[in-house]
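Colleagues,

For the teaching module next term, I've prepared a clean inverse folding example: a structure given as tokens, and then the sequence designed for it. I'd like students to try predicting residues themselves before seeing the answer, so please don't circulate the second half yet.
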């Protein structure tokens, strides 16, 4: 099996992929769009995509979810532990500049401010570690994973520099083929997107069925349709399996108000949700 992720080797997506598919061929891609595009062309490929973070919120891949409409097979919550990495022999007092992905810098803001580091935003965490390894400048450091330190031969100058120790990122495992588990005793998530008909109070009316049938929505996010700020798609997750009668009734009610509706996937809820 081939698993694609965005970023360089050592990225948190790489770590998450190793946790789920330790025996798979794990391949880095330069961009999220490249991941989605390759999976859309080959149903043998799966991608692992960071969707949201417990501290800083959405990662910003919603437009690609809408564009490609790949199926979601599973969710995985990965505990994020940031480390300050420098070339061998470097001391924290030497550091002036810190490089990383914007999310990692934001999630480590207290540590950065405490040490008066100058922030430098780059495309990904592991790529930042690679840059530090190649530049060999003792005034520069990266915030990245422990795996990045191992891959790029860097010293860990400070461990667990994240602001919140319960930091975690939710990843989605996606692909082109449709795979849906049968309704059983497990807890499930049903994920879908929809676009409403243009009329007053459309969103309010469309969600009534969920309230009446006692269905819990765990995610509801709007995203503007291409080239428009008046027409929006909505990305939604709910607790439960699409084959449950109460959920079918709720989705039937929603459908009355929609111009477009698409089920992205039904998958077991990660046990991390119970924490």
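(Answer key — instructors only)
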């Amino acid at each position: 099996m081939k698993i694609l992720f965005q970023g360089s080797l050592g990225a948190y997506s790489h770590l998450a992929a190793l946790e789920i598919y330790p025996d798979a061929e794990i391949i880095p891609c330069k961009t999220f769009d490249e991941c989605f595009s390759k999976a859309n062309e080959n149903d043998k490929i799966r991608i692992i995509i960071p969707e949201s973070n417990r501290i800083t919120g959405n990662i910003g891949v919603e437009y690609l979810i809408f564009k490609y409409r790949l199926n979601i097979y599973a969710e995985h919550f990965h505990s994020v532990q940031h480390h300050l990495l420098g070339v061998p022999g470097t001391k924290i007092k030497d550091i002036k500049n810190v490089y990383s992905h914007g999310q990692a810098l934001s999630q480590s803001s207290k540590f950065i401010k405490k040490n008066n580091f100058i922030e430098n935003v780059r495309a990904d965490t592991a790529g930042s570690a690679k840059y530090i390894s190649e530049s060999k400048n003792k005034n520069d450091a990266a915030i990245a994973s422990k795996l990045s330190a191992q891959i790029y031969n860097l010293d860990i100058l400070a461990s667990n520099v994240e602001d919140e120790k319960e930091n975690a990122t939710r990843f989605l495992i996606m692909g082109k083929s449709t795979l849906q588990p049968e309704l059983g005793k497990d807890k499930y998530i049903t994920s879908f997107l929809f676009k409403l008909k243009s009329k007053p109070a459309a969103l309010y009316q469309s969600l009534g069925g969920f309230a009446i049938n006692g269905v819990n929505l765990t995610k509801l996010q709007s995203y503007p349709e291409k080239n428009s700020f008046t027409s929006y798609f909505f990305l939604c997750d709910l607790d439960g399996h699409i084959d449950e009668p109460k959920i079918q009734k709720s989705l039937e009610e929603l459908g009355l108000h929609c111009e477009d509706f698409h089920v992205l996937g039904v998958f077991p809820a990660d046990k991390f949700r119970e924490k």
